[in-house]
User: Fold this.
Amino acid sequence: MMKKVFKIIIYIFIAVAIVGYGAFSGLKPIAVDITKVSPKDIDATFTEQGYVSASSDFNVYPDISGNIIKVMAKKDTYIKMGDPILKIDDADFLYQKRLHESTINGYKAQIANAVTEEKNMKEDYKNNISKLNADLKSIEGQRKTSEANRLSAPSPDEQLKLIELSINQVNLQLSYATEEYNKVKTLYEVGSSSENDVRIAKNNVDVLENQLSQLKEQQSIRKSQSDALAKQYNESLTGNDLAAKGEKEYFDSLVASIKSQIDSFTKNIEKGSSVNTVAYYHALIEGEQATIDHLDQSISDCVVKAQMDGFISELPAKNLSTVTPQTCIATIKTEAQYIIETTISTRNSNDVKKGMAVELVQGLRTNDNTFTGVISDISSFAESKTSALGVDERRVKVKITPDSTAPLLGDGYDVDVKFFYYNEKNKISVPNAAVFKNGDEDFVFKVVNNKAVATPIKVDIKLDLDTVIKSGVNEGDLIIYDANIEGLKDGVKVSQKK
Assistant:
């Protein structure tokens, strides 16, 4: 028997230990790696192997299609890198840019109107609060007079006037509440207000409509029973306690109604109804500005420039009226001793542009030769190439003109070409593992008061190791290095790994 009891005690002890451990584990913070954010200079590069090719004639192609309106270069003349060769009609791009600028100005006007409207509405609210406070003082004065005089409650005529005053006050409040409800409902339809905001605004309207209905019913009853009320009034002159009690309840009800209206106006002043509207139009402005930036690039590309120094040996543009990116508009005979040719993956083709500087490295057993060059040509199509691993790839041919510091290299020499496709100063970045998605939005976990806080961010660019942040993370923020740790979610306690 004792053994059986002893076993039961042991089982109970084990069960309590398991439950206790489970509770302790649930309260125990998740150990994570935490990194402190600080701005830094970011150079994003990729390197391809190139080779030296004997200098030859260089064909110039435009980056966009359009009608030629002017040819500035002349055949058999010397031209320097950056000098204009011809100009393509940019009227359509300029027209589109003006349209988008006009749209931005319209959005800015909407923002200004929203801010002004809110300012005016707040002034109205403040004026109404002042009037209601004056009414409160008036009612309190009547109450004190009545309490001092104790002869009776207000006469039936005075009570009717007070009811009419209340009706006017509630009508005014209802007008503003209805206007606010319609505005919140419009913002909800465009996604700038929540369903809860609409529900609160509608509830304010319903409450005031109910108050107004009750007051009008009281007014109707008072009018229909004026004789009886007058008689009751005369009887109350005897100063019975019931009349004094009714008087107090009446004044308390009026004061509570007015204070409720003041509280509602005060909340509307504090709420700031234009915040969501302003944010909505700012988002639209950002979209329009991105389109304008693209148009500015197209406008700039309308002036086709030489990518190197040399003599113009051929100028087909003289006999053309329109061009496309596949149209050769000029041939430049270069003075360079050689050019560097390489190919890039189609994945990187959008990251390089004509005129972009690159770093060139000739590998040697002792010290490498490092010099610079400029991208002088990018093929408009991709070619199929077989990699060293036997995989078919689509690659785009790129030509680079070395600068004057380049060493003398022979035809066919190997040269590494380093492309800088992202080069920015003082940028905020986080490890790629720190970023996670929720729907279409990007998030990171910030550490605030030893808790993980899911924070939305705007991504500028995602690189091989880091993600550059446009907004949502600031210098000094503590970020969890890996967002994929098991059990990690918004609000859980965390601690720094040892």
User: Anything to note?
Assistant: Helices lie at 2-27, 91-149, 156-189, 195-224, 226-236, 241-271, 274-301. The mean pLDDT is 82. The radius of gyration is 39 Å.
